[in-house]
Sequence to fold (138 residues):
Amino acid sequence: MPGKREYAVGRAYEFVLMKILRDRGFYVVRTPASGRGTSSQKLPDLTAIRRRDGGSEVLLIEVKHFSRPRDVYLEKERFKQLMEFAERLGARALLCVHFSPSTRIKCLDLKDYDWETPGYYVFDKRSFEERGVDAASL
Fold:
């Protein structure tokens, strides 16, 4: 589990992403301590909803921050919880990452991982640059 400083920096990028999404017309809810073992029901870091084309668009977002570009490991249990939640809601599950020193937050669909290990789904750091969508374009 990350230390207090890492948690605070990660939380700050959740708020940055919330502002970006709100500016794009989404209603955004942050789930405090979503990944810190506070509940048996693990919720996404952010849930974003907006009206679109006569319906609703729902995004379930896991947010990560790293001090340098690196591969991103997402626990299989967390992946499963988010994908099941997305399926029940008809939502899109995203992994949005900020790598310092960049100012951009890039997002990939959760199902677009690059490989897996026994306990993790892994997203190659290059995938965010090559296939990732800038959060400001969501």
Observations:
- Helices lie at 4-23, 76-89, 125-130.
- The longest strand covers residues 55-66.
